[in-house]
Amino acid sequence: MARVYISSVIEAPAAKVWERVRDFNGLPNWHPRIRDSRIEDALPADKVGCIRNFNLQNGDNIREQLVGLSDYDLFCSYAILESPMPLTDYLATLRLTPITDGERCFAEWSAEFECAASDQADLISGIGTNVFQGGFDALKRHFGGR
Fold first, then answer.
1. pLDDT the model gives residue 70
2. Please, which contacts does 40-44 make with residues 24 or more away whose CB atoms are closer than 8 Å?
3. What is the pTM of this model?
4. Starting from the edge strand earliest in sequence, which strands make up the sheet with 104-115, in order?
């Protein structure tokens, strides 16, 4: 099983960052690699079990299912249902933790998945850099950080 883990500090209160990332259909509003997104079957974007169907800027299509969401613990977990990436059993969690020393939060994004050994290093690097860190960098820019 492959694992990806990226963490960052965002110069904004966790509650403010959560307002921005909580919407399971809101990726195009904050992640630069996402072109558009919709929730299938007109379900609410915070209903566990809903499926987001989105397109990357390069045209690739991905479908993901929300499997966990907590406004109290500030996390969402999702599984990839369909993707052009050569992987299976993908489960990821985006979590925010308030930092009590200042108006900041600790952000973590992790995933586990199965893939061929020959694809593992590229997938870990690509997901970690382009998806997770790319998202955190966009959030930092939005909230005035570096």
1. 98
2. none
3. 0.94
4. 2-10, 104-115, 87-99, 75-82, 61-70, 51-56, 34-39
